[in-house]
Design brief:
single chain, flat, 33% helix, 381 residues, 4-stranded mixed β-sheet, 11 strands, alpha+beta, 11 helices
Length: 381
């Protein structure tokens, strides 16, 4: 069977990713001083304006405005005349976490004498053996293209580029195996310049190094297909934290429970349980128990034990799904406190996730494959 599957990614200068970056930078600043910080920060950006809102309960002394300005500058919004930069107006509207939520996620204070989930909800994790980092190829390539756009901009290799940008990749599958890239789309924010030259440079400096071995003479390549992309960033479109949840996860190939990640401390299972589900799925695939694996976890606010665990291996499993669920319950952290402890989620590591995906990066704790040997042994593989 032959089919195409497409995924998109965006650069750290995209308006929504500016917001994710600010929210996660604030989270990291709180955790660096107080690992028990409770943080739920949302950011909005538009022309020459930033609004930071949400709930923070922490012992940390944090200058929210200074953190936001530094993040905006680090992304590359430092020039005048483009409608947004690190000198834009910033408004901070932050208060403490609701005590009704706090009592459910503080050990010994809720109805149950252990840390409960910070909210109800369903979270998914996914892994597939079609790439070395066990991510779907379309989103993996799209992230790498977006990251390359940023790299050539920041290094001055393509001097005409500005921070905003997007990528999209379509991959042809034959019998479930990716065989070629059928199209690549790049939209990159830029100064007013000669478009044919810019397209040539993006093709040679961004696309060819990332997908050159997967494209052929029939691959469609579209670069700034509207003609130009001079008005961009928060001046071109307003941005919001958490609006790119499919970009953040698996590019649409795996399901998503609906909760966003950025700006939330790990007591929020929207984030921590999604990381745990990826950890489980990745170890199952890395151990050879399946070629593809999707894991769903369901939680209730204030209650620690997952209400359900669901495993779907798309008919690629090498052992029964009943045994697989048994191994998951036996060897993986599932309660919020267990997840936070085993994956060491109180560290200030979240800035690494705010752009180019939360999964597939080998330096993040939920990407480790330390359960492979025990899974192989107990599964008899």
């Amino acid at each position: 069977m032959k089919y195409l599957f497409s995924s998109e990614s965006i650069t750290e200068g995209h308006p929504d990713k500016v917001c994710d970056g600010i929210s996660d930078a604030i989270l990291d600043a709180c955790l660096a001083q107080d690992p028990d910080s409770r943080v739920a920060v949302e950011t909005l950006v538009t022309t020459e304006f930033v609004c930071i809102a949400g709930e923070v309960t922490t012992k940390a002394n944090v200058d929210y405005e200074a953190i936001a300005r530094k993040k905006i500058a680090d992304i590359g919004y430092t020039v005048d005349g483009i409608g947004f930069n690190d000198k834009s107006e910033i408004k901070v509207l932050i208060h403490e976490q609701s005590p009704d939520i706090s009592q459910g996620v503080t050990v010994g204070k809720g109805e149950y004498e252990e840390q409960g989930a910070g909210d109800q909800g369903i979270m998914f994790g996914y892994a597939t053996n079609e790439t070395p980092n066990l991510m779907p190829m379309p989103i993996d390539l799209a992230h790498k293209l977006s990251a390359k756009l940023t790299e050539v901009r920041k290094k001055g290799i393509i001097k005409e580029l500005l921070p905003d940008g997007k990528s999209q990749v379509s991959v042809e599958y034959v019998d479930g195996v990716p065989v070629r890239v059928t199209s690549v789309v790049i939209a990159s924010h830029h100064y007013d310049t000669d478009m044919p030259t810019l397209r040539k440079n993006i093709k040679e400096k961004v696309i060819d190094p990332i997908v050159g071995n997967m494209i052929d003479e029939n691959t469609t390549i579209l670069i700034n297909a509207t003609g130009k992309f001079v008005v961009g960033g928060p001046h071109g479109d307003a941005g919001l934290t958490g609006r790119k949840i499919i970009v953040d996860t698996y590019g649409g190939m795996g399901r998503h429970g609906g909760g966003a990640f950025s700006g939330k401390d790990p007591s929020k299972v929207d984030r921590s349980a999604a990381y745990a589900a990826r950890y489980i799925a990745k170890n199952i695939v890395a151990a050879g128990l399946a070629d593809k694996c999707e894991v769903q976890l369901a939680y209730c606010i204030g209650y620690a034990t997952p209400l359900s665990i669901f495993v779907d291996c798309k008919d690629t499993e090498k052992i029964s799904l009943e045994l697989m669920e048994e191994l998951i319950r036996k060897h993986f952290p599932l309660k919020p406190a267990q997840i936070i402890s085993e994956l060491q989620l109180k560290q200030p590591i979240y800035h690494k996730t705010s752009a180019y995906g939360h999964f597939g990066k080998t330096d993040l704790p939920w990407e480790q494959t330390d359960k492979v040997e025990i899974l192989k042994k107990e599964a008899g593989i």
